[in-house]
């Protein structure tokens, strides 16, 4: 999980938190890995949150893992609700669903991208060559749509 293929930032106007925190590392990974990286970008996470009703029910799962998960997220849930967020989203949870079952991804885009390292407003932004202007080899396979119902089944299984 990391990056943002549409230039919509969550830490700065243009950058996602993970890439913004260490753009040099993200840059090296994208340049050196040698094959397309399956990426769950910020925008996909932002577009696939869970209703508060579903989230609260899910967090009441009375298992060791359920209680652990509930303890981890309680502080952030309180903050999100106080900020009047319409839903709960966990980027890490969505990324884990893809690791378990790649068919959660219903649409992907293969493209070339680099991390902006020097911009005063765009440092950490993943700049994607959507029109293949640069003619470079694909290095990203970005998940752009998901089967959220399939992901929920996996979320439930994670707490058992």
UniProtKB/TrEMBL annotation:
Domain of life of the organism encoding this protein: Eukaryota
Molecular function per GO: hydrolase activity, hydrolyzing N-glycosyl compounds
Cross-referenced InterPro entries: Inosine/uridine_hydrolase_dom (IPR001910), IUN_hydrolase (IPR052775), Ribo_hydro-like (IPR036452)
Keywords recorded for this protein, A-Z: Hydrolase
Start and end residues of each Inosine/uridine-preferring nucleoside hydrolase domain: 1-150
Family: Belongs to the IUNH family.
Name by which UniProt lists this protein: Inosine-uridine preferring nucleoside hydrolase
């Amino acid at each position: 999980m990391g990056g943002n293929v549409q230039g919509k930032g969550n830490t700065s106007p243009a950058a996602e938190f993970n890439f913004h925190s260490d753009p040099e590392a993200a840059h090296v990974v994208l340049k050196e890995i040698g094959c397309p990286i399956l990426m769950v970008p910020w925008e996909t996470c932002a577009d696939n949150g869970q209703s508060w009703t579903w989230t609260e029910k899910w967090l009441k799962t009375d298992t060791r893992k359920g209680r652990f998960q509930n303890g981890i997220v309680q502080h952030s849930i309180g903050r999100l609700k106080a900020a009047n967020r319409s839903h709960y989203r966990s980027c890490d949870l969505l990324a884990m669903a893809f690791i378990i079952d790649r068919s959660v991804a219903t649409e992907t885009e293969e493209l070339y991208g680099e991390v902006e390292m020097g911009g005063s407003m765009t440092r950490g932004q993943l700049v994607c060559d959507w029109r293949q202007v640069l003619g470079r080899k694909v290095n990203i396979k970005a998940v752009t749509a998901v089967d959220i119902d399939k992901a929920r089944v996996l979320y439930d299984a994670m707490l058992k």
